[in-house]
Design brief:
Glutathione-S-Trfase_C_sf, about 230 residues, 4 strands, Glutaredoxin, Glutathione_S-Trfase_N, 2 domains, Glutathione_S-Trfase, GST N-terminal domain-containing protein, alpha+beta, globular, binds glutathione, Glutathione S-transferase Yfyf (Class Pi), Chain A, domain 2
Length: about 230
């Protein structure tokens, strides 16, 4: 693909963890793009519904075509601009590495991330306790072995990969929100003992400029608290 000629416009909202995925990819790829912030507090305009009839962010305009769904947008960017994020499927190690990354992301999203928002919503220790346990157990069982060779990123990489592009926005919320009382600090403390590979990886992910670049840690925590209070 003639990547250099693509004109990109990202429809986004910096508070959205799904849109955040596209920002991580674009930052790592260092490709120029235009940005249009979509106000999610008001109904979508007719104009935006033409871009994405589901009314969700992110959407990516590529020349005159629209791509929606954060995983699809991120995979498109990684394929269109070959880089350290993921090998091409035609590379000798491509199919296997891509399958391993896909499995890691699927595991993170299906086994671990599902507890994040219930945990944030929990109001009593009785509600919180089983969710903490469930999250820690899932990390120890499912993710810890997959991060045994993290370096500090997935599969021995010293740079972000597509695995971090697709999970980083959720990792940074888990890792930084204890400061704001949204996630219990005990979960991080327990993970540092029981899942050291995961903890080192999560720390490196949360500290990475492509992950924390557009993330307003305090602002998103405040907005999340306000949404919960409603
Ligand atoms: N599956 C979608 C989820 C995107 C999504 O849920 N975006 C939220 C913001 S975080 C949104 O646009 N919500 C609009 C609304 O609920 O009105 C993706 O991965 O892109």
């Amino acid at each position: 693909m003639a990547t250099v000629t693509l004109k990109l416009r990202l429809y986004t909202n910096h508070g959205c963890p799904w849109a955040h995925r596209a920002h991580i990819a674009l930052s790592e790829l260092n490709v120029p793009f235009e940005e249009e912030i979509i106000d999610l507090k008001v109904p979508r305009t007719a104009e935006y519904l033409q871009v994405n009839p589901r009314g969700l962010v992110p959407s990516l305009r590529v020349d005159d075509q629209i791509i929606t769904e954060s995983a699809v947008v991120s995979a498109f960017l990684a394929d269109a601009f070959p880089s350290h994020l993921v090998p091409a499927s035609s590379d000798p190690n491509g199919p296997l590495t891509r399958a391993r990354i896909a499995f890691f992301v699927d595991t993170y999203m299906s086994k671990v991330n599902g507890s994040l928002f219930p945990l944030i919503k929990a109001t009593t220790d009785e509600e919180r306790s089983p969710l903490i346990q469930k999250t820690v157990d899932a990390v120890v069982k499912e993710l810890e072995p997959l991060l045994a060779n993290a370096g500090p990123f997935f599969d021995g990489s010293d740079k972000l990969t597509l695995a971090e592009v697709l999970t980083g926005s959720f990792v940074i919320r888990l890792w930084t929100w204890p400061k704001y009382g949204l996630v219990p600090q005990s979960i991080i403390d327990e993970l540092s003992v029981k899942a050291p590979n995961f903890s080192r990886w999560a720390e490196a992910v949360a500290k990475h400029p492509s992950v924390n670049g557009i993330f307003d840690e305090e602002g998103t925590a405040r907005a999340t608290k306000q949404r919960l209070a409603k």
